[in-house]
Write the structure tokens for this entry.
Amino acid sequence: GAGVSQSPRYKVAKRGQDVALRCDPISGHVSLFWYQQALGQGPEFLTYFQNEAQLDKSGLPSDRFFAERPEGSVSTLKIQRTQQEDSAVYLCASSLAGGYLGEQYFGPGTRLTVT
Amino acid sequence: KQEVTQIPAALSVPEGENLVLNCSFTDSAIYNLQWFRQDPGKGLTSLLLIQSSQREQTSGRLNASLDKSSGRSTLYIAASQPGDSATYLCAAPRGEYGNKLVFGAGTILRVKS
């Protein structure tokens, strides 16, 4: 079956541009997560959805970051007025169950480079 | 606050050797702990999930143990192969919903043929 997919796989943006990153979770998965991974580091949590509800956005680094999952399936992470420090790999994960019960399955990530 | 540390940061071994990767965490009130593998330029592949009620989990040549009282987990890889070369990450959940995975920085493993 299909795993978690993300698009685009690579994105180059000029500083100040807005970008939108897409995540297609595994069909039927209730929970969806976004993480940011800097080079040589482990991923860091950004935000969490249970169905269409964004239950935790405590990891979003600034108000330039916005995520949505309007129909409880596909999610979009939007970054406005990109800065160089936003350069990272953005990983999406989904899990069948909510919260700690669910094993998280990750997509391949979107590598964002801000020039 | 949960902090996860992995030792060593990098490891190079000859093919066929058995090896142990270490993961420690500061908050022992965890529901589970998950081990992942990450290949260069790729996402994370889940290897093993150990529930807090379990002491270990096995999958093929991989065995992961969990000791909540000491705040430690180990990933044992038997008879290592060049295809095992990757970064190995451990992660523990936290947060009101247990939803946030807190990751270690990973151990970069290289298995030489």
The mean pLDDT of chain B is 92. Chain B is about 0% helix and 60% strand. The radius of gyration of chain B is 14 Å. Residues 60 and 91 of chain B are 21 Å apart (CA to CA).
